[in-house]
Structures are given as C-alpha cells and as structure tokens.
Amino acid sequence: MKKLFVSLAALAMVFAVYSCRETEKKAEEMSEEVENVVEDAKEEAEEVMEEAEETVDSMTNAADEVIEEVKETMEN
User: 3-class SS at 68?
Assistant: First the structure.
C-alpha cells in the first residue's frame, strides 16, 4: 500500500511538472502573439497617420487654391 501511495504521489508530481511546462510554453506563445498583434497595430497606426497627413495636405492645398481663385475673382 505504501509503495502504491508513493507511486501515485510521484506520478502526480510528474503530471504537475509537465503541466507547468506546458503552461509556460503556452504563456510564451501567447506573449509572442501579443507582441505580434501590438507590432501590427503600431504599423497600422503609422499607416493611418501617414494617410491622415496626406489628406490634410491635400485639403490644405485645395483650400489655398480656392482662396486664390476667390481673390482673383474679387480683383476682376
């Protein structure tokens, strides 16, 4: 009986260690996935900012052209 109890305890410890290793591997995988998602989000944000800057520049140029046209019209 004593040997059975010790064997079961040893088996439980083996499963516990294995489970911890699997949990650690999964945690590392999740950490890498989170890093990838953050990196992708950062890249997307940079692209959106560049597009926003281009849009603002285009709108500024269009507004400048309209102002020039209005000035020319008022002068004539």
Answer: helix
For the chain, first and last CA: distance in Å? 111
Three-state secondary structure of 16-66: HHHHHHHHHHHHHHHHHHHHHHHHHHHHHHHHHHHHHHHHHHHHHHHHHHH
More confident call, 16 vs 32: 32
How far apart are the C-alpha atoms of 27 and 1, rounded to whole Å? 39
Taking the C-alpha atoms of residue 14 and residue 20, their distance in angstroms, rounded to an integer, is 10
pLDDT greater than 90 at residue 22: no
**Tokens 């269009």 map to which residue?**
62
Structure tokens at 4: 């059975």
